[in-house]
Amino acid sequence: xxxxxxAIPILLLFITAAAQAAPATWKLDTAHSGIYFDSRHIFxxxxxxxxxxxxxxxxxxxxxxxxxxxFTVKTKSITTFNRKRDTHLRSAExxxxxxxxxMTFESTRVxxxxxxxxLIEGDLTIRGITKKISAPLIFHGVKPNPFKPSQQVAGxxxxxxxxxxxxxxxxxxxFNMGVMDKEVDITISIEALK
Length: 194
Known about the structure:
The structure is a single chain. A hairpin with a 4-residue loop joins strand 7 (about 100-110) and strand 8 (about 115-125). The longest helix is centred in the first third of the chain and has 20 residues, at about 1-20. The protein starts with a helix and ends with a strand. Helices cover about 15% and strands about 55% of the residues. The model is unreliable at about 10-20 (pLDDT under 50). The protein is an alpha+beta fold. An 8-stranded antiparallel barrel has the order 1-4-5-7-8-9-10-11.
């Protein structure tokens, strides 16, 4: 009889632990996250970012390979702090923000690479063109929010390079002239809240 009574709290303990370890939905902290890019113009580097983006994040800090994400970025929110250049970037010649108001990334796999490093793979869609990409991912860990200790904060950084011509962001004219490089370096730094 005693064994039966002991089995119930032990079973509840295992159920609770399993529930805590399962992947959970986290909220993107857009105020402390950013999607940045660097692009070569002749000799200089033009830097910019996107101001309007959102994400659906399912994160398992104990087993990151069970995590998933989907990012949606408003292409018209691109800014390089130069009005004329930003208008050109939004035009049909480049991002064509009128016909393609969003670009997306949806993960398909997260692979551990040792320590806090992972490889994230997924589908990147720009101007309606989808390509499979992979990028190194650094998981900075989880800690209580200093301003709200009951809330957990997770941090991630990834850096990768895309060929903009693969997505028809430009037709190659400026690249052939030596004005604008075809490769763009992307940095994504995010904080997520639970």
